[in-house]
Design brief:
Structural class: alpha+beta
Number of strands: 8
Helix content: 25-40%
Strand content: 15-25%
């Protein structure tokens, strides 16, 4: 029994090896609700039978009606599908729409950081003070944009500018 317990702890540590230690204390494992990836930075999850909307901290994705909006959304879907729609949520805040603003991990990796590295979202410095992973996200964004990866191969309009123009 003791061996089993130690093995279980070891497996847990390995699966969470990329999560910051501060995240582990507040993290909850949830399931992405089927068909609920709204865009490249918003999902719905079920945590212990309670459904909630999650807005990814630190990033802003193109709106679904905006150029590259569907590309960003579909890329996020593929990342979550690889993780069997199981995510770990580190809640940071609640936004004005009642969504939980959170860092989202899948397979031990920060999903929004992967979205940045793949050139699917902007680093959103408006809320960087509430972003525990800001330095890493900002650095990845700078590199991704200078290498013209993903949607940055063209001349994309930042989502906040697109929203302002299309109100």
């Amino acid at each position: 029994m003791k061996r089993f317990f130690l093995l279980a702890i070891a497996l847990l540590l390995v699966s969470c090896q990329n999560l910051p230690s501060s995240t582990l204390a507040n993290a909850r494992t949830c399931t992405v609700v089927r068909g609920s990836v709204r865009d490249g930075d918003t999902i719905r999850v079920d945590c212990d039978g309670k459904e909630q909307r999650i807005r990814f901290a630190c990033v802003d994705a193109p709106e679904i009606k905006q150029e590259n909006g569907i590309v960003s959304r579909d890329h996020l879907r593929s990342l979550l599908n690889r993780a069997n729609n199981q995510v770990t949520i580190n809640a940071i805040d609640t936004d004005r729409f009642g969504r939980t603003v959170a860092e989202v991990y899948a397979n031990g990796q920060l999903v929004q950081l992967q979205q940045v590295k793949d050139g699917m979202v902007w680093a959103y410095d408006r809320f960087k003070a509430d972003c525990p992973s800001w330095k890493e996200i900002e650095g990845a964004f700078t590199e991704t944009r200078s290498n013209r990866k993903g949607i940055f191969g063209g001349n994309p309009v930042p989502p906040w500018e697109w929203r302002r123009r299309n109100r």
